[in-house]
Fold each of these.
Amino acid sequence: MESWVDGQPADVLSLKDRGLAYGDGLFETIAVRNGAPVLLERHLQRLEAGCQRLAFNVDLSVLGAELSAYAQRLGNGVLKLIVTRGNSLRGYAADPSSPARRILQGSLPAAYPATHAEQGIQMFPCTVRLSEQPLLAGLKHLNRLEQVLARAEWRDIEHAEGLMLDTSGRVIEGVFSNLFLVRDGVLFTADLSRCGVAGVMRAELLFQAKSQGIATQISDISLEQLHQADEVMVCNSVYGVWPVRGCGSARWPVGPLTRKLQALARALLDA
Amino acid sequence: MESWVDGQPADVLSLKDRGLAYGDGLFETIAVRNGAPVLLERHLQRLEAGCQRLAFNVDLSVLGAELSAYAQRLGNGVLKLIVTRGNSLRGYAADPSSPARRILQGSLPAAYPATHAEQGIQMFPCTVRLSEQPLLAGLKHLNRLEQVLARAEWRDIEHAEGLMLDTSGRVIEGVFSNLFLVRDGVLFTADLSRCGVAGVMRAELLFQAKSQGIATQISDISLEQLHQADEVMVCNSVYGVWPVRGCGSARWPVGPLTRKLQALARALLDA
């Protein structure tokens, strides 16, 4: 489907855009099901937090309406939204009053092997570490070189995702997923106040798990805790939940809580 | 002057470019004097180091010729080069064989107040810290949100630059400059193996200083060492050298080694 820039069909962008120059922008990758953006409110909430942190001038009601209109035309697929600070002259200084730029791109539904969800995946133990920057932690901003370098560490198809630690060795997330582990019936996920992307599906699954009486805990996670987990899974807003069967020498069974959260995600995502 | 993309006149870029999507690219800001790029070899060397680190597929001889041809038309001004990994589909994985994209943009000579160079500047003590990522340290890559946030900390014209520390509190650089200090006749600049941009003018001044018998030292620099310096200056490849008169409560005189390095830079840059 054709892309939109500020509500108009376009497939190109000004060379002066600060998204290109500095990665001065944010993005959201949104599943679209039956003409509607899935978890739209959560995506908009995260985007709003990012816009506040970066002092972007965005009208979220205009943006929300635009996302809905675009999703209606897309039908089923994936909607990628990029918001940049727009054009600027040379230099890092930005005009805080100039409106942010909205870029919408649509694509077909993601085509992952069904075995990822059914039997679980192997994760590649990435050596690239996430640097710690509390001012940007949690945001889905456009400065993604660490993910690009991490994703380049494996090219085989045996590994469906990569595990990323921070520079202090804490377990944080996948390259394009958040990570949960289960231990003694408690659902753990990493504290993302120093680095990492606070995923929309992670937030939704935490919310739904709590609603169903499952104990949840957001905390620092060591490699040892990961290795001793009863279950491990990854999630994102496009594929839902994949069980993790192994990473490096570690092995985990596919457990009942993983299957439960997977069913919750599937109910949101399956068209 | 019109911009070039891969050697052709253009003012727009594909929305699929990975420079936009992930900041998956590098840049160089090159002074152009009398139709020639200043310190071209050093710019190409840094770019080559970046291309190796990010596994970009760039023909540097083609790029060098293109920069020279563009500079000849520009005459006097500033040439900004952006190299991106080119287009990709959704996802962080890149095709290592696909050629990188070359973007050249020209602008008028930088218009800074003459007093910056003559009398020296005040630096704003930024609270935004540089995160430590050895894999990206030194490169002039497109992930520049830390600089964008730091530059937004001051809007008055009393401060011409901002001082940036790393997350451990070491003195690293300016927002768009490298920093030197002088103590007992020795020229110090920060070790940039954890973060920071290894500037072309910094490299040239270190080289020229050594050639003239001035002792130089690349090392970690504490705030205390900065405060106790005899002279402080900042540099980049566009404006050359500015003496630093103060930062926060600290004050420094404009000293003889600063004036000497400033003259060296001026010889390179003044048209």
Amino acid sequence: MNTQSHPFDLAIRLVPEGEGCSRGATSPAYANMVGPFGGITCAVLLQAVLMHPQRQGDPIALTVNFAAPISDGAFRIEARPVRTNRSTQHWVVQLTQEDGVAATATATLAMRRDTWSVPEAMPPSEIPPASALAPMPHTGAPAWVRSYDLRFAEGGLPSAFDGREQPHSRSEVWVRDEPPRPLDFLSLAAICDSFFPRIFLRRRTFAPVGTVSLTSFFHADAQMLARQSDRHVLGAARAMNYRNGFFDQSAEIWSDDGQLLASSHQIAYFRD
Amino acid sequence: MNTQSHPFDLAIRLVPEGEGCSRGATSPAYANMVGPFGGITCAVLLQAVLMHPQRQGDPIALTVNFAAPISDGAFRIEARPVRTNRSTQHWVVQLTQEDGVAATATATLAMRRDTWSVPEAMPPSEIPPASALAPMPHTGAPAWVRSYDLRFAEGGLPSAFDGREQPHSRSEVWVRDEPPRPLDFLSLAAICDSFFPRIFLRRRTFAPVGTVSLTSFFHADAQMLARQSDRHVLGAARAMNYRNGFFDQSAEIWSDDGQLLASSHQIAYFRD
């Protein structure tokens, strides 16, 4: 299934150099307007953990701090297991380029046990199936957008950045890799950052923005992701507050049968 | 105002040892059932950053990973600035005890500029003022609960752990330090973890639980916190999903005039 020849797998390919270090490079297929799409950086940082020989368990939490712009080209990742318990394992990860640290991350892996399990939040209701919605046109979009099939039920990018402030920034959108690829923790980590900056929807002005820190929680296990396979997942995103150069946004990722796969929270900077 | 003699300030007191390292110790006033209250650990990790001579700016984001139980007694914190930009600064922090790393953290500081600012989420409505609600009784509660004045408008701890599963786990609660202490980033970081585990409210059974990873975003600047002073802040908390040993919870902290001060998201383990 994961043929390693999918553009996503090529983009997160790391060459181990021993002692938890590896080398990778940015990929044109996931380029953003400047540097790489944040989601692919999340995925490659997680990949450094998951391919580490001391890895134990599957991801529960991932925090990525975007410390500096990542330049197109080579990077080095160091992943270090700082504590391994019976059922959880804690990692500290760092991505460096020639001019220093460009991203830091922490990850927690866990081995899950069968327990009492119930949902509390419910998936968005009355959303048409992905098959009933048109894919967002890729014309003029940065490369990474073309690496996704995005079908908005609500809250797509505004057709014009006309400065007409909107009352909210909510989006509901079906997402899958383009071309299709079976969902795993790596692609899910990237999808967690696939929601356009909420300030674009709310303010309808175009200005420099960038994620500062992003945390994703993985509610699904590997079996749930395997069941989802390469079908669209449903994302729901919103913001809570925009204030003096920073705003937050949160998103949930749902399977197409209404299970919560991941939740994600980030804070981003913006310029006026 | 911050007299350094408040139990909170004593609990987060660190003795610098040079090169970003410092020593501290757990405090009986913030003891939980086993080890310290998670919120006081968040505060002391942030304190290690804020007292560092290279600190630049105020907190925007803080992630704390609880890697292992913290034993009562001494600990050592190392705070390292990994990247300083014009307006943001990224930190990696680690708390160790004799048997290894017990917590890791990343923090982002920033210098804010005046920009377009609007709220999107609204504070809970129709909540009685703190003065109209009774403080939660401290009888039988762990020490840290006695270090807060908690006034629940909704969703207090169940009066009995009778296993009668509830439809939701929402709480709305006025919170302040006990005795009162003017709010700052450190006490706000602790308050972000002051919400009882949602599983207690939802499931009404008592079982071992513990935060695995907690991320807080600071929407307020120092002036907003100073204006709030030592009056109660309003917290609102809920969970989204409980599944195979882990559940999440999110909370917002509002000033008493309805401004979002912080938002916080955590994932916790539970046993059946």
Amino acid sequence: MKRITNLTIGTIGVCAATLMIFSASRADQPASLAFVKEIPPGYRDWRLISVAHEEDDLHSFAAVLGNDTAIAAYRAGTLPYPDGTIIAALHYRHAVSDENNKIFGKEQSFVAGTPTNIQFMVKDSKKYAATRGWGFGHFNNDGKPGDEKLMQSCFPCHQREKDRDLVFTKYAP
Amino acid sequence: MKRITNLTIGTIGVCAATLMIFSASRADQPASLAFVKEIPPGYRDWRLISVAHEEDDLHSFAAVLGNDTAIAAYRAGTLPYPDGTIIAALHYRHAVSDENNKIFGKEQSFVAGTPTNIQFMVKDSKKYAATRGWGFGHFNNDGKPGDEKLMQSCFPCHQREKDRDLVFTKYAP
């Protein structure tokens, strides 16, 4: 995985600097959490769940993909997501396309720019019992995982999405 | 395919209202063109090429997918794209997510809104010889194809992307 910069906003894993606003209380945040330590193999061949875009100071563009278990659960509306579900958010800079704009004759076009990071949610109700069955992973473009402070920010935010089993991204038809 | 509205901007098929600015000369635009008449089956299961976003008055959000031939060609850097390549751009409204913003505490989040249309580029060097081997397709959310005027706008714009065999979208790693 060759990805260069180190931006951190996510749409599935909202483990992001701006989300440190969710400074969890001890009641919310177990002292020791298990995170996803390895990049799930084959994720780039998974099917599309949806797309996402975060602005403010982030300028982040995402494709959200799911493994077969995730796609089946999304399409069937299965909640909670079954063990084995993995959701991946591939993040890029939300970049102006000067090339397209020149052809279009308008300032209108944005494309996936520099890859920044990939975030994962892995469902394993035993392994990640302390975070409602979800393991969170963040890997910078150089393949290195996010630091402890970043990773601690995932669950407190995601747990606010209670009606959809902690998953923000909806399926795009 | 249940898709409701009738917006038209594309990233692969830039067969869009705003692109009528490319009112082609007779030299550019053959009098009778063959278009893609049927929606290619299984496109929603294809793999990701990239994401795209068109603003100005469009507010369009896209996931660009490719069939196996397309993905193989993209990854190998094969140009021109071989016969059998199909590229699909699934378009949605670029929608504010009030739900996410409420959780994030900031006005920052955009998601795939109402589905609008799907556009296809199909490579068949014989069938679509008049348009450099590409057949263009546009299907509104109700499954109906784009009208003649819209379809006539595809090739004159795409042919300006000569260095990448008329394809705008680049592969996102």
